[in-house]
Amino acid sequence: MKNAKLNISTLEDSEEFRLKRSLYSYWLDVSKIDKIEITSSSRNDWYPYIAYYDKSLKLLRVIKIDEKRTRLKLEMRENTHYIKISDIYSLKNIKDDLVLKPTIKK
């Protein structure tokens, strides 16, 4: 699999991007941005699980937060190409959308 890639949304501009309720983890291409601010509704019981991957899908790092969050700021490191956003317990905890506000690389 030489030139494989995931068929997922790419965050490219500073407009809001909404992640709808899902039973599956959210995968995003973050190769063109520096930072993301994620906002979660107060109705959600979101316990963040964020996994960072390079362009070959090698796991770079994982963030697990065992407390309910309504806001989270993430920085993309140089090699980060994809991220997976989930919940450490269950995606059923996310009842409303998660709103992402990316910051573009300059």
Record the SSE blueprint.
Blueprint: E1 17-19, E2 26-29, E3 33-40, E4 48-53, E5 59-64, E6 71-75, E7 82-87, E8 98-104
Please tell me about this protein's structure.
- Helices cover 0% and strands 42% of the residues.
- It has 106 residues and is mainly β.
- The protein has a single domain, classed as Jelly Rolls (Sandwich), CATH 2.60.120.260.
- The strands form two sheets. It has a four-stranded antiparallel beta sheet with strand order 1-8-3-6, with no helix packed on it.
- It is globular, with a radius of gyration of 13 Å.
Describe, in short, the structure shown.
This protein has strands at residues 17-19, 26-29, 33-40, 48-53, 59-64, 71-75, 82-87, 98-104. With 106 residues, it is mainly β.
Determine the CATH superfamily: Galactose-binding domain-like
Give the number of DSSP strands: 8
Rg computed from alpha carbons, rounded to a whole number of angstroms: 13 Å
Helical segment count: 0
Give the mean pLDDT.
90
Just give the CATH class: Mainly Beta
Quick one: biggest sheet?
Answer: 4 strands, antiparallel
Spatially, the strands of the biggest sheet line up as 1-8-3-6
Question: Structural class, please?
Answer: mainly beta
Gross morphology? globular
What is the helix fraction of residues, given as a range? under 10%
For the termini, the CA-CA separation is 31 Å
SSE string, helices as H and strands as E: EEEEEEEE
Q: Which residue ranges are poorly predicted, with pLDDT under 50 across at least 5 consecutive positions?
A: none
- What is the multimeric organization of the chains shown? single chain
CATH architecture classification: Sandwich
Beta-strand portion reads 35-45%
Number of domains: 1
Query: What is the CATH topology classification name?
Result: Jelly Rolls
